[in-house]
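Hallway conversation turned thread

IA: we were arguing at lunch whether anyone had actually written out PIN domain-containing protein end to end. Turns out nobody had. So, for the record, here is the sequence (755 residues) and right after it the structure tokens. Reply here if something looks off.
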Amino acid sequence: MSSKEKSNLVAKQLLSDILRYEDDLKTSELQTRQAKTRETAVAAAVEAAHIRSNLKDLYEELILSDLKLAKENDIEERLWHTIFHGPIKMLRGQLSKMQSKDSTAIQRSRVELSRLFELGTGFYHTLLNSVKLQSDINLDTFGFDLLKLKETKFPKYKEIGAACIQRCLTYLGDLSRYQEDSTEKEIKDWSLARDFYAQAVRVYPDSGRPHGQLALLATYSGNHIEAIYWNCLSLVTKYPSSIARSNLQTLYATVTKATDNTSFDGFERFTTLFVKLQARLLFSNSSEEPIQDLETQVTDYLEKLLLNGLGEDAYKQSVRIITICIATLWDLFGRLKDSSGTSQNLQAAKLAQFQTLSLILRLQITYFQSPVFTKIRWSEMDSPEWKLNEFQSAILSTLTIWTSFCLSNFEYITQLYQSSKSDPDLKHVQTNVEVFIHMYIDLLNLLPTSCDRKIESTEYLSEDVMLLGIQPLRKLHKELTIGPLLQMRHQSPVQKTQAQLNRIRKLAFKLHESDVFDLVQYNDAEMKYIIVNEGVKLQNKERLMKAMAQQLLIDQVNSLEQDLARMPAPKSAAQKNTVLRQIILDVGVFLDHLPKIKRWISTRKCVIIVPLEVIESLDDLKKGTGSLNARAREVIRFLEGKFKVADQFIRPQRPSEQLSDWSEAQSYFLEEDEEEFEGDEEDEEFYGPRTIDHVPLEYRPLLGCYFYHKNIAAKISTLIPTLLIVEDVELLSYAQWFDIQSMDVNQFVEWLGQQ
């Protein structure tokens, strides 16, 4: 008989002994319950404890001698319920029913409960270490190695060993949770249990059981988003928890029921709306409210939170929110592949997947446009002090996770987009896809290395570790290498961000290579990606400045002019020094002298008019990675802040504040003095004949703005005639052709100091 045959024989004998002892334990426990005297009950209980101790040893011996046989006979579960969970559950039940006067019985039960906690903790630590050594498993890296299973002909016994270790860690988490719950603390500390469950997830990510335990801990603190997050992750593991779906239904019902008759604000209100929408998407819950309306409520309320500075929780939970949606999309996709479903259910799942995709994109767009994210100075990444704050990092993580999903499932995303283009009822999905892509490409073109199209990045990111092995990202995770993971802890903030951006950039190359996403092209001359679809309605930050200038501030301008008109006329020389002067600045002044502009506003001695031409120039200049592009973005942020609060000392030009036709400039034209300019052939050769038609087109909007406000100043006694402040020497030369008071910045600073 070979050694293997002997081992098999020993294992089978152990299994036979276990079955016999389990029968003996049932008999002994029955005798304990039916005992008519205390002595009989005590004797039966002692016998049961002895049998249970022997069973524990037999269970452990079988697990260590033949893991496969133990797995086939569910020995680990039987061990847990028979030796630990059953007795603990009984004692906890007894304690909950005992009166305070039964102090002796209470103390005796607590001592026994503590003994079980200590015994179980020691037992599972020992079993875990034994299986780890026997199966040669590295707890830190096994979860990553597992993803290479098919490619490397991974030993099956190692996977069985890892699953056993995961259950040991889960049981240790349960023991810690029960022990903490048995204390009389007002505020419970679940951190130890959470650590055990989290390690269980990492060591064997294919099983969704510990995810469910983490969801349970989240319900203790009332964190509904986190609880939904962990249950959703459990749902999309290779072996989902059998109760994950029912847990989600219970959670959704609990949240919506608790808030039906209660008014919530802030993030709680967002959570309610989000959960209602998720219930509709995942379970096709009936509702009279159109699902698109509910989606709009969710994203509009999120935008409101972020814009009003109330979105701290919305930022912190952004990764979980996006991951929940991705898990929902994946689950719906899986249901569509299940031919056993009814046609009605399949149709509901099909529509729900489009709505889920639309929701993900709108959430991403909303986070893109948040004040926190738009303030990131990408051009300064090379600085040693540069880093993202907590909220900015969270938003970048959501984008990293979403692009990772798209890379793993590019064909699926392509199919959804293609279908949305051909179905009028899904037009909103197509629009959201294209708006997201536009904003995504704009972000890439702001990055320092956005011109690098061929990004070969195979390193693990913190987001990969967090979501290791889930089915939606499994294809991508299989392609990653373990090496860089070991260096992740030593990365600087910039290195971590750069690694995320490397992943994010890879999607652009996919989009560019796709025939379906034909709106993305690569401009070799400019070395950047561009959007070529002119039909896309841009719903992003690039149009914010112009929208403010042309729409939101018209009433404010009217109010300003009325206020200026009501100002009393100057009565003395001293008072004349406080009269306001309107000044018009060219884009060069804004780019090179922003600190001076801020001081001018603070003096309240002038009203700065921001020409629309300047706003458009800044909008064009903000795209890029150079210092000029960075300054343009800084100016834009400054102007946004001023326009939002309606600062009366700086305002944008209204669309109507210009000449109706350039020919009107003739009335301001100064005829050339023949004696003064006689023989100045060099000037004429450079500037052309001295007529209004020879003023370059790019200068006319700015000069037209000046002429308009010169007229306004003439009608309002409290305004000194308008002054043109420019840095463009050529523009200054053309200004001399007209009745224009102009000077450069240094001259204006000197003038202002004399006022």
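OS: looked through it. Residues 552-753 form a domain with the Rossmann fold fold (CATH 3.40.50.1010).
IA: good, adding that to the notes. The chain is about 65% helix and 5% strand.
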